[in-house]
């Protein structure tokens, strides 16, 4: 058990929640398709390449800062999403888009400074465009949003959806870990937090790890493995699906878990975050009977 005096050294989550709008953010870009195009089934790597190419032309110093840190890079991206189409796919699950249609993707920043600098580029650029698959796609609109968190919505369980293939790495093995054990999931997010937002509260990782091991259990899950092809390399194996995590204790550290869940939607989780792997969504569960009712419907 964690000693109460040790637990009290954990920063108060309430002060962080008050400043959470200052913590990173998401920039969503919408594009016009000028000619019929087929995108690969997994688009993360081409989105990343296009973004860094665009940035290197507009702000080479910023591009270098975002890409040079090999430990934890301060951004993540989403996959390409078709806008208001019937989501046509080839037999190889490639995305088919027709001339005149639209698609979008999001750039996510773990630090507000990088978000603000990137937004400023789009504000000052009269006709921005991204180069993808040997053609230019004009940006027709963009919007950005900062994270928000309402602690009153936090329940005794959380259902986390792993929307794109996800895996975790460990120094103990050279093989990817294909199950989101609580300590791997939440410790990964906490390390990202400490790298870029410790000024709002430095998380004592040793205390957090012990709390996770004592107070988070897996209540239910549904996962399947997926292969991801990034460039010409061998496929990367990851998992998709959902996991319900149950919390045995509700205290200040439990409040921090809520903050980290919100932050995870910005930073993605696991390996290859900057190529769009590890995108998550989540839903808090307050009443067990409500969750059981939803499970029956599914």
Molecular structure report:
With 298 residues, the protein is α+β, with helices and mostly antiparallel strands. It has two domains: 4-19 and 150-297, Alpha-Beta Plaits (2-Layer Sandwich), CATH 3.30.70; 24-145, Alpha-Beta Plaits (2-Layer Sandwich), CATH 3.30.70. The chain contains nine helices and 14 strands. The protein has helices spanning 4-7, 13-18, 44-58, 60-68, 112-124, 182-197, 205-215, 252-267, 288-297; strands spanning 25-32, 37-39, 75-77, 81-83, 95-97, 102-109, 129-132, 135-145, 157-166, 168-170, 173-177, 216-228, 236-247, 280-285. Strands 1, 3, 4, 6, 7 and 8 form a six-stranded antiparallel beta sheet that branches. Strands 12-13-9-14 form a four-stranded antiparallel beta sheet. Helix 3 crosses helix 4 (60-68) and helix 6 crosses helix 8 (252-267). The longest helix is centred in the middle third of the chain and has 16 residues, at 182-197. The radius of gyration is 20 Å and the shape is globular. The mean pLDDT is 89.
């Amino acid at each position: 058990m964690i000693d109460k005096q040790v637990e009290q050294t954990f920063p108060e989550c309430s002060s962080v929640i008050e400043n959470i709008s200052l913590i990173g953010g998401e920039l969503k870009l919408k594009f016009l398709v000028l000619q019929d195009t087929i995108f690969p089934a997994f688009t993360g790597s081409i989105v990343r390449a296009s973004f860094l190419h665009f940035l290197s032309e507009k702000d080479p110093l910023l591009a270098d800062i975002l890409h040079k840190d090999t430990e934890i890079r301060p951004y993540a991206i989403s996959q390409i999403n078709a806008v208001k189409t019937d989501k046509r796919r080839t037999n190889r699950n490639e995305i088919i888009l027709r001339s005149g249609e639209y698609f979008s993707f999001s750039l996510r920043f773990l630090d507000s400074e990088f978000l603000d600098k990137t937004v400023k580029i789009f504000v000052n650029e009269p006709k921005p465009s991204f180069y993808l698959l040997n053609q230019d796609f004009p940006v027709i609109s963009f919007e950005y949003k900062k994270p928000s968190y309402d602690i009153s919505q936090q329940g005794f369980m959380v259902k986390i959806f792993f929307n794109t293939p996800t895996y975790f790495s460990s120094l103990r093995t050279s093989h990817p870990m294909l199950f989101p054990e609580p300590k791997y999931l939440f410790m990964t997010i906490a390390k990202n937090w400490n790298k870029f937002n410790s000024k709002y509260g430095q998380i004592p990782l040793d205390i957090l790890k012990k709390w996770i091991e004592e107070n988070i259990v897996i209540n239910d899950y549904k996962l399947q493995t997926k292969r991801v092809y990034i460039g010409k390399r061998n496929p990367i194996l990851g998992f998709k699906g959902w996991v319900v995590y149950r919390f045995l204790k509700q205290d200040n550290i439990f409040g921090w878990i809520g903050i980290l869940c919100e932050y995870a939607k910005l930073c993605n989780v696991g390996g290859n975050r900057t190529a769009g792997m590890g995108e998550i969504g989540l839903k808090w569960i307050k009443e067990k009977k409500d969750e059981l009712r939803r499970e029956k419907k599914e």
